[in-house]
Amino acid sequence: MSDQDRAVSPLGDVAELIDGGDMDCGSGLLLLITRAMRRMEAGQRLGVRSSEPSVVTDLPVWADLVGHEVETEVAETSDGPWWFAVRKAGRPTEETTVFSLGDRTPLGQRLWVYTNFDCNLACEYCCAESSPKAAARRVTPALGQAVFDEFAALGGREVFLTGGEPFMHPELGDLVDAAAGLHRTVLTNAMIFSRGRRRETLEKIDRSVVLQISLDSATAELHDRQRGAGSWERALAGIELAKSLDFPVRVAATMYDEDPAGVSELHRRLDGIGIPRDDQLIRPVAQEGFADTGVHISIDTVEPEPTITADGAWWHPVAVTNPNMRIADSPQPVSEVFGVVRDILAVQDAAERSGREVFRCA
Model pTM? Predict the structure, then answer.
């Protein structure tokens, strides 16, 4: 919010003033509000400006669900934008320590970390907009150690190290070591760790670390069209190398259209090279980053998978280029990252129980 907006605010005294622009409650506004509310004391007022008409209905519903009060609503014109003053509840909102993420992992037990954003490939659907030209934005071993220590102290169990291409990080080995004691998975395209310094890094990694390797199809045509000429053969070679070094290997395919024939062919290919079915993952393209089409991502369409980068924290690893999915402007404290997510989940749960909707998506 600019100083000029503060000067023209019709809300009077507020502890903080945020501008939601045209975001609705499902596309990021509640993340902004929740972050701000956690910084405020009970009884203080939060100012919110919005040009999205649905917020006029949804914001009071949200406030009622969590016990806050919308004290003031002012419209600049009949078509908006609208200003709201929300007083934070004077009593603690209900705390729930464990939320189930579907049938997978309880919130607080899993953390994603983008080790870096530069990559040897520039895949046409990359949600992180990684490429050889991307800024590295590396997580340092010192930051990684601090994050992993706090995460473990909070009861965390599992960490996924992704990118970019993690093996382009010159200190990847130190980052993996920093997460010792947690169940560790490194996501890689398996194309650059066969020789030189990166091969040395690979061979020094503990064999309890899972390597999740990308392979998008049973044949080279589709994979190479999406990832670059020759990448399919090199990925297969990387899978064989990882297996020969006794790493647990999981293979993940990213597909625009989950055609049953293509999926079946890929499963048969992976069966043939000894990858167990439980370690064969098929995932859709998300409409994020470089992808113009795919699954729509918002806080009400994907369950949270809290994700750390060198410069922030995000709702889900596929949404790290989407400012509406940002949880925090720094990777620590991890407790605050999970706290924001818990607050959002509590609202979703309360809305579901009451039959009310506060997470609309255009």
Answer: 0.88
